[in-house]
């Protein structure tokens, strides 16, 4: 019985040690609003998966803000983010953007302490390639940085430029049997 009680206390302590946060929609810059919405949904899941946060679901967040008559569209200033956090009753807010310049995407996030109104941590992750790489790895790495964790993969090495070596003529191996021609 004592072991069961101790286990329940440890689980409760772990749950309460997680920081209660909410995530605002990422501001799209050079990507579509639909892509930014997908990235935001992925970010919520990735932040939860770090084990550092309890994340308010988007539908729950929207319901609370609707009841308060608050529109989060265009809420990008730190003051606005803090106000949303106060309405939601969370300790911290995550806000940021997803942008594209040329072939490089940038996931830029800030973790904002609602009580103090200051940025606790920020994360900028650059991804070269297409938007699917941002979804697969960029959002994951940015979430880990916001949680104070290191990305858990090594970035791929830059492609090496190799010059093609001239083709050598085919040589016969001394180990291979040679065909002998017969005289007729």
SSE arrangement, N to C: HEEHEHHEEEH
Q: In CATH's first tier, which class applies? A: Alpha Beta
Count the domains. 1
Helix content: 25-40%
CATH superfamily: TolB, N-terminal domain
Q: In DSSP terms, counting alpha (H) and pi (I) runs of 4 or more, how many helices?
A: 5
Label the CATH architecture: 3-Layer(aba) Sandwich
Uncertain ranges: 6-15
Q: What Rg do the Cα atoms give?
A: 27 Å
What does this structure look like?
The chain is an alpha/beta fold and 184 residues long. The protein has a single domain (14-146), classed as TolB, N-terminal domain (Rossmann fold, 3-Layer(aba) Sandwich). The protein contains five helices and six strands. It has helices at 2-17, 33-49, 58-67, 78-88, 131-146, and strands at 19-23, 27-29, 53-55, 92-101, 104-113, 118-128. Strands 1, 2, 3, 4, 5 and 6 form a six-stranded mixed sheet that branches. A hairpin with a 2-residue loop joins strand 4 and strand 5 (104-113). The longest helix has 17 residues, at 33-49. It starts with a helix and ends in a 38-residue tail after the last helix. 24% of the residues are buried. The model is unreliable at 6-15 (pLDDT under 50).
List keywords for this structure.
single chain; 184 residues; alpha/beta; Rossmann fold; six-stranded mixed sheet; 6 strands; 38% helix; globular
Brief synopsis:
Helices cover 38% and strands 23% of the residues. It is of the alpha/beta class and 184 residues long.
């Amino acid at each position: 019985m004592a072991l069961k009680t101790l286990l329940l206390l440890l689980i409760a302590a772990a749950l309460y040690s997680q920081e209660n946060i909410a995530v605002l929609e990422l501001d799209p810059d050079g990507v579509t609003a639909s892509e930014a919405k997908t990235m935001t949904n992925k970010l919520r899941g990735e932040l939860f998966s770090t084990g550092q946060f309890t994340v308010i679901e988007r539908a729950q967040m929207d319901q609370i803000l609707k009841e308060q008559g608050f529109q989060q569209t265009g809420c990008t200033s730190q003051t606005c983010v803090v106000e949303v956090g106060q309405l939601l009753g969370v300790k911290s807010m995550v806000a940021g953007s997803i942008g594209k310049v040329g072939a490089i995407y940038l996931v830029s996030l800030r973790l904002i302490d609602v009580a103090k109104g200051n940025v606790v941590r920020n994360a900028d992750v650059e991804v070269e390639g297409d938007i699917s790489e941002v979804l697969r790895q960029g959002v994951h790495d940015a979430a880990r940085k916001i949680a104070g964790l290191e990305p858990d993969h090594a970035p791929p090495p830059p492609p090496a430029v190799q010059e093609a070596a001239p083709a050598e003529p085919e040589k016969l191996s001394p180990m291979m049997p040679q065909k002998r021609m017969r005289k007729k």
